[in-house]
Amino acid sequence: MAFSVLQTKSDAHTEEIWACTWVRSVKTNEHLLITGSLDDSVKVWVWDEDRQLELKHTLEGHCLGVNSVTANAEGTLLASSALDATVKFWDLESGEETNVIESNEHHAWKVAFSPDSRLIAVGTQQRKVHLFEVESRKMVGDLDTTGKFIMALTFSPNGKYLATASIDGPVNIYDLQTSALLTTLDGHAMPVRGIAFSPDSSMLVTASDDKHIKIYEVRRLDQSTDVHLAATLYGHGSWVADVKFAPDGKRFATGSADNTVKVWDIGARDCLHTFTAHSQQVTGIAYSPNGSRLASISDDRSINIYNVPV
């Protein structure tokens, strides 16, 4: 089956959708697509190949727009951050709120679970990254980045590193065991909104307001902090808001303020397909757990589901 749009869920939220993630629940075996919106809500959708997207839960509790969502590896626990300066935790099976972290003066902007689901990283508007133990909700680490406003952050799949991106361009990579700053990547001079490690943790892709996508080789970080810039890709007509790797690591996707979603071949360094189904800027993307589907969200309040050949 070729690249195609499988479903458009119009008016999925009542305002712009700013966050999404896709995970498989080990409890129910459901494929759960989670979206967060400026309408203050988080929605949990079940993807079924026959029935397509069906709403499972609407999670209400934030009093300002939701800007980030992340699920643990088991697909049982969700964390969401919002403009109300809180990080809320939700049981994905019941839809119940289970806990909350008040970020107070350090307004949370991005959240991410570690691959082993033990930690959650909270990136703030005051350049701080707080590391919390998920079970106790206690802060166990506090990273002061060299950048400003933290716009994106991600753990490496091997659990060794945390990468952060900021509004002024620098991308920092930290050693999680020592909390040491290993290297700073200065390839972008404008805000970096998206960063993603490859599934084998050997590459880091960055996406920026400068319309460029950069691919860095980071496989030897444990031996040298000299990171090689492998490629710079062009093609989007406006800033690039998000980047995600396919589970097999052979491809990655980007979403942009030019209203498009592009799928790229990591080996050929080439764009394989461009989706043009949104009428406003694309704010986030997420691959399905098996990599055969791709979701995108937008300021047009819709969710698109695509077939992406593997």
TrEMBL record:
Keywords noted in UniProt: Repeat, WD repeat
Superkingdom as given in the UniProt entry: Eukaryota
Which InterPro entries does UniProt cross-reference here?
A: WD40/YVTN_repeat-like_dom_sf, WD40_PAC1, WD40_repeat_CS, WD40_repeat_dom_sf, WD40_rpt
Q: Where are the WD repeats?
A: 59-100, 143-184, 185-226, 233-274, 275-310
Name the CDD domains for this protein.
Answer: WD40
What start-end ranges are recorded for coiled-coil regions in this protein? none
Q: Identify one Pfam family in the record.
A: WD40
What is the name attached to this protein's record? Answer: WD repeat-containing protein 61
